Amino acid sequence: MRGAVLYAPGDIRVEHRPDPAIIEPTDAIIRLSATCICGSDLWPYRGVEKHDGPAPMGHEYVGVVEEVGGQVATIKPGQFVVGSFFASDNTCEICRSGYQSSCVHRVPMGAIGTQAQLARVPLADGTLVATPEPPRADLVPSLLAASDVLGTGWFGAVAAAVGPGKTVAVVGDGAVGLCAVLAAKRLGAERIIAMSRHAPRQELAREFGATDIVTERGDEGVTAIKDMTGGLGAHSVIEAVGTQESMTQAIRSTRPGGHVGYVGVAHGVELPGDELFFSHVHLHGGPAPVRQYLPELIGLIWNRDIDPGRVFDLTLPLDQSAEGYKAMDERRAIKVLLSP
Amino acid sequence: MRGAVLYAPGDIRVEHRPDPAIIEPTDAIIRLSATCICGSDLWPYRGVEKHDGPAPMGHEYVGVVEEVGGQVATIKPGQFVVGSFFASDNTCEICRSGYQSSCVHRVPMGAIGTQAQLARVPLADGTLVATPEPPRADLVPSLLAASDVLGTGWFGAVAAAVGPGKTVAVVGDGAVGLCAVLAAKRLGAERIIAMSRHAPRQELAREFGATDIVTERGDEGVTAIKDMTGGLGAHSVIEAVGTQESMTQAIRSTRPGGHVGYVGVAHGVELPGDELFFSHVHLHGGPAPVRQYLPELIGLIWNRDIDPGRVFDLTLPLDQSAEGYKAMDERRAIKVLLSP
Fold first, then answer.
1. In a mutagenesis test of the B interface, which of A280, A290, A291, A292 is the best target, namely the one with the most B β-carbons within 10 Å?
2. For the domain bounded by B152-285, which CATH number is listed?
3. What confidence tens digit (pLDDT) does each residue in B131-145 have?
C-alpha cells in the first residue's frame, strides 16, 4: 500500500509500506475512505517535537472494514467505521468513566499511521463505531472530522463546562478551535467569542455559531475579553493551540470560578502555580476521549444537524501529502483531506 | 489594643496597636473571642514569602460585634459572628456564583490582622455570619476552625469532586488536610486515605474519618496510592500543602478523569503543561470561598455533628503568640488557638 512517512522535519514522503495484517485477535483492518492532516502533525513536521524518522504519520481515519480478528464480535467486514486517535477497549474502568483516550490498554493510532490506504485498528470492538449504512460521499468529510477535530473541540467545550447562558471564548482558530465553536453552539452557549485574525477562519467561525470575533492576542486579547464581560472574564474558555501564550491567554480570560478546557497538545508550557491558584479557574483537558462522543456526533452528522467537514478547505490525493503539510504549515489551508 | 506583628522572619511581637475604628459605613468592629495561627502565616514567618515588616498578622477570627457602620443592615452589635479571611460583599456576580474569595470588592483580612483583641471587618453584611445565639465556650474552637481551615478543607473536597463511592487521598496532614478528611467523610467518600507520617495527626485523621494512612511521600507515595486503587489512582485528591512536591504528588496520585482540589497556597510551584495534559485530571483550587460554606458549617458545628476544633492542640494567650508560631513552625503543634 501507499502511506505517508516523515523522514525529517519538513520531509514528508508517500511511499510503499507493507500492507497491515491482523496481529492481535482483537484487530481489524480497514481500507481508508479518507484521512487527513492534523494540527498536531505539524509539531514533528516543524521539528518542535522530536521524531525518530522515518515514521509513519496520521491518526485520523474513516473507512471500510476489510478483515477482523477472531475475537472481534461487533465490528464486521463491509461496515463503514469511524475511530479515534487512541484505540481503546471501551470496557476498562477508565473507559467506562468516559476517558477512553486514557484507556489502560490504549494504543496510539499515530504510531500505526493512518495517512495510508490501509490501517490496522487495535481493539476494534472498543475503538470503532459503524455508521447505520455506508454514507453518501458528501458526509465523509464530516465523519472524518468526528475522528479527531470535532471530537476534540467537543471535549474542549465539555471540559470548559459550556452551557446555556454562558459566555465562551475560544483561543485558536485552527480546525479544533472552529469545531469548539460549533460544539459551544450545540451545547447552548449564549455568546461565543472566536479569537481569530484570519478572515476565512472568522467567516467559518461565524457560520459555526460565533457571535463575536476578537482579533487581539496575548494580554490585549485578555483585555478585550474582560471588556466584553463586565471586567470579569468569560465563563468558559477553550484553549486549542498548546503554547505558553495561548494557555496564559486562556487562563487570564476566564473569570474566577470559570472553566478552562484545554485541548491544544501542550508544548513547552509551564503554568505558574501561584497565578493558577489565585485565578480560581477550573482547568481540565488533555487528549480528547473522542470515542465517548462518537455515537452522538455521528448521529448529528448523519441527520445533517452539523457540518464539521467544512473545516476541510483543501482536498488532495494521498500522494500529494507533502503539499498538504506545506499548505497547513503556511496556514494556506485550515485542514487538508487526503484521498487514498 | 494588643496585637501580633511580624517584624522579620522568626520575629513575632505582641504589642500595642491602635484600636480599629469604622472607616467605611459598611464596616463592623468586632472584639475577638478567639483567633489563631494559620499554616499560611508560616510562609512569611519562615521568610519564604516576603513581607515588608512590621506587619500585623492573622486572618482567622470569631468574636462579638461591638459597633457597625451606618450602612450595615443585618449584622448587629452583640451578635457572635464568624467571618472568612477575605471580606466580601456577597452580592457581586462572582460572589453569587460561590466564589466570595474572588469578590470584586474583596479585602484581605490578613492585611488588617486578626491576631489581636479587636478587628475592623469590611463589608460586614456580606462577610460575617452570626450564630443563632452566643455559643457555649466549648463550641468556640470549632467555630474558629470554620473561619479558615475547615472551610478551606471543605472547598478542597468540593473542588476534588468528593462524593459517595469515591476513593479520596489527602496530601498534607496540617489542620487543612485534617479538615479535608472530615469534609470528605461528610461528603460521603467511601475510602479516605490520609498521607501522614506523624502519629498524633494520623490518629486525628482516623477520628475525622480516614480509612487508611499512607506514610510514604513523593513518588513512593504515588506508588502506594496506585497500589491501593488497582493501578489507576484515586478519584479525588486534595492537596493541602502548596509545594512543588505536594502538587506533583497530588496530580500523579489521581486517575485519568479524576479531580485534584488544591488549597495549599502555592509557593514556587511550576506545573509542566505536557504532564498535566496527559494526566487527564481536573484541577481546581485557590483561596477557599469559605463564606459560601459558613452557614452550613456553622449549622453542623452548632448541632455538634462535627468537631473540627479538635485541630487546635495548643491554646495560648495572645501575648504568647511568638511561642505559638514557634510550636507550629517546629511541628510541635498542629494548630495554635490564641486567646485575646
1. A280
2. 3.40.50.720
3. 999 999 999 999 999
